[in-house]
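Chapter summary example.
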Amino acid sequence: MLLLLKRLPLLLLLLCSTTRIASQPSAKDTLQAGTYTLAPDSSNFVTASLVIAEPRGALLSVFGHASLRMECPVHHLDFVFTLESDPSANAFTKGISGKADSRFVAVPTEVFLNDCREQQRGVCQYNLTLTHHEKQELWRLLDENMAKESHGRFHLQKNNCLTSTILNVKQCLIGEYFEWGPKEYPSTLNDGDFLRYSLRQSPWSEFIAMTFAGTAYRGHSREEERMTPKTIVDMLRKARFVNTADGTSRPVISDEGTLLVKGRKEMPTPFTPAIVFGALLLLTCLETLAEWKLRWQRLARWFDITLFALQTIIAILLMGTIVYSEVFTSRWNWYIVEFAPVPLLLWLTVRGKGIEPTCWLTYSAVLALFILMTPLLGELDLPHQLITAALLVRSLNRYLVKRNKNKKLS
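The structure predicted for these 410 residues follows.
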């Protein structure tokens, strides 16, 4: 019974559209339903549109959101079909690990738009040039997806709102296929550089994403897997629906877009990662100078405890993500070198031993080499290297302190 209720809008749509096609009205017999004019060939009996919600500052909203809007104005049917991830309390952890379930939901368009208005989130709509029968097939596919309890694991790259949207559009085609246009910048970038490009307006999201996603991300995934709702529109303007019989084609989207909700422009924070970690490096240098000139050893001790404790926490999160996550596995991450909890290991194993200064010097040499590698590895960025520099200053300081202490004891 529940399944029947879910499919009721589709059944009504198919019944009415079949009747409409059979009647074959002439050009002069244009039908009017309220304020909606039905085209003579019934091509606008059902309309299908791509709906893009603009990005927001939150990490999980920073890419924007893609969904499909299906309308049958004659029968007052208007829904936005969207893929949503597990709404449970630990959804963020599941999403990052690639273990969150996803499912399709159909939301009345006005409810969807009101929610975006409350968030002051801009929404644009782009009409898809599907044929009448393809629109029917698309609605049927979306209805079937919605009836399923799960649409598989939500994956930040391979199964998300955008990939599912493009997949449904491809699957509904009849006697046609979907063809992407010629690759131009930024689509020519590798996956890692494209991720940076997509997040360039949100420096902190870029910093967090690149920390955990890894830097050796040189592959080229499928277009829909690497694009974001924010960048997909430009790609779709060049994409075509191609007829398999005669090779004729038409654009996938037919217009420049319609603004449904005007969003609030978010002002970028002046405290970018580069500024914050630059200040951290400056503070580290001043604290080190105060330790040697003013003999502030107790302050230096607590500074080291705080700095290396934060490094250890990030290292645990980073290693846990690499091992546990199904999203970031098999990706080498250069930041493992930066955040490796070596200070903690030295404190646990060689503290107070004669070899301790040598260990700190070796660790400092590794950090210095990591900084020197920056020009050779384009993936390494300034904020992370500023953190590395701060760690290097305190590691060298620990070496000098321990060496002097050993000299006095000898």
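To summarize the output: Confidence is low (pLDDT under 50) at residues 1-34.
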